[in-house]
Amino acid sequence: MHLLLAATVPDALTFAVAAAISVIGALGVVLSRNPVHSALMLIMTLFGVAVLFVEENAQFLAAVQVIVYAGAIVVLFLFVIMLLGVDRSEALASEPMPAQRWLALVLGILGCAEVILLARGKWPVGAHSVSGVANPPHTANVTVLGRSVFTTYLLPFEITSALLVIAVIGAVVLARRPRGPEGEAPASGTGSEQAAGEGGGAGAPERGAGAGLAPAELAPQPEPGGTVLEEEERVSVAQRPDQ
Amino acid sequence: MSVPGDFYLTLSAVLFTIGAIGLLVRRNVLVMFMCVELMLNAANLAFVTFARELDDVGGQTAVFFVLVVAAAEVVVGLGIIVAIFRRRVGATADDIHVLKG
After folding, report:
1. pTM of the model as a whole
2. pLDDT for B5-36, tens place per residue?
3. Which among A47, A149, B13, B53 could bridge B5 via Cys, Cβ 3.0 to 4.6 Å?
4. What confidence score (pLDDT) does residue A48 get?
């Protein structure tokens, strides 16, 4: 603690507050029952770490941390949570591995103690400034980082672009609705759609005969990503009372 | 004089441990994924701390790449999660046991 007091008061205060925010947010991620609360707590942790980045003279990374993590990744998490509707709580009564929690806790605390012990001691120090000085005088952090990325680490940077393209293609392939006989729609979704189709089809004869409406208009609106197969199925279900 | 690196590394270890314990304890797949992000952030904090201690910008560059890889990982991982939950209703990782012997 005397080392922390050796720092100037604003630095020490900033570190203490940001560290507290980060740890509270991290605990909130783990302990929240609601996934939405977990995501919001994750944003809190990310902001705390961003403040620590600024404190360590990594201003560009702090900005990227807030923009990419809090702005894009956590929003993606929230989108998926809303999309899946995972707001039901976990079934805590049925624990498949009863000892898992305590083992995880003991293992985690042991690992943490070990790393803290290592951090307290002297860590090996190699040659200074292999890829450029981090904070030269009269030069911005962005300049140094950009020079490093585009000279020393140019090849990894290019590979990164390929990785991003692959990730985008993978996401598109995964998110595509499966089509074809082997890739049927999920059982639950098909059941509800059929139920809705039969409900619409029950009142079909008089309306279909009287107003001359096409059966397809009586059927529920197909989903934007619906396949041709599903649409034909719906039309046949709606026409069933006529036959 | 700024805060010495020991404190940052200790904080990084604590954050990483919380993330690891959460990954082992929680059974909601999305929360488990968030815990992975937490661990990545702890590693980033350690990287930036070493970059400051050794006065070498390479650590910050590593964080840059970790951010990109994390973004790609989240995109693909969430795609997989959506693809899994589209065909089954269970919300926990224990419901996905097709490969169990």
Report:
1. 0.75
2. 888 988 999 999 999 999 988 888 889 999 99
3. B53
4. 95
DSSP conformational letter for B57: T
pLDDT in tens, A168-225: 999 888 878 766 655 444 444 444 444 444 444 443 344 434 444 444 444 444 444 4
> Mind giving me the DSSP string for chain A?
-HHHHHS-HHHHHHHHHHHHHHHHHHHHHHH-SSHHHHHHHHHHHHHHHHHHHHHTT-HHHHHHIIIIIIIIIHHHHHHHHHHHT--SPP--S--SSTTHHHHHHHHHHHHHHHHHHHHHSPPP---S-TT--SS-TT--HHHHHHHIIIIITHHHHHHHHHHHHHHHHHHHHHHSPP-SSSSPPPHHHHHHHHHHHHHHHHTHHHHHHHT---HHHHSPPPPTT--HHHHHHHHHHHHGGG-
Q: How many CB atoms lie within 10 A of CB B4?
A: 15
| Residue A193 in tokens | 């759609």
Q: Which of residues 75-114 of A touch B (CB under 8 A)?
A: 76-77, 80-81, 83-84, 86, 88, 90-91, 96, 100-101, 103-105, 107-109, 111-112
d(CA B41, CA B38): 5
Question: CA-to-CA distance for A30 and A49, rounded, in angstroms?
Answer: 17
> pLDDT-derived band of residue A100, with 50, 70 and 90 as boundaries?
confident
CA-to-CA distance for A3 and A15, rounded, in angstroms?
13
By three-state DSSP, how is residue B55 classified? coil
